[in-house]
What does this fold into?
Amino acid sequence: MDAQVLPFSVSVAPECISKFNELKLGKSLKYIIYKLSDDYKQIVVEESSEDGDWENFQNKIMSAKSSYKGKEGKGPRYAVYDFEYELEAGEGTRNKIVFISWSPDEGTLVFPRMTYASSKEALKNALPGLAAEVQANRDDEIEYSTILNDVRKGRR
It folds into this structure.
């Protein structure tokens, strides 16, 4: 499968798609964190894990760093999380594959933030079967309870 190329030369690495299929079909992976390569030309897999602990995932994504021209700041990231939750009326458990775009409002360098924003659709389009999308720019927007509320209501 060829990498998909955008007009501004950011491509999606084939591993992004194969890891997503492994999460979606194999059900052993719990999440995948994607990042832009150091030269900002390709979306690549930074990490994937079977660890279902939300706080571990949240800490990893929130502590990400990006650098550009010798400067370092908070790092935007994309992630896919196999979000499992209980239905409110005790009707059982549900899973939704959630696409998360994390781009902190504060402490993020301008170029990485703009590049992540402009290349998000390429990654989303390469990953069929996403059930929900979350755009998180503040710490409270990536809290488990916030995402649970949005996933249950089909928002974001």
Notes: The beta strands are 4-5, 11-12, 31-36, 42-49, 65-68, 71-74, 77-86, 93-102, 132-136.
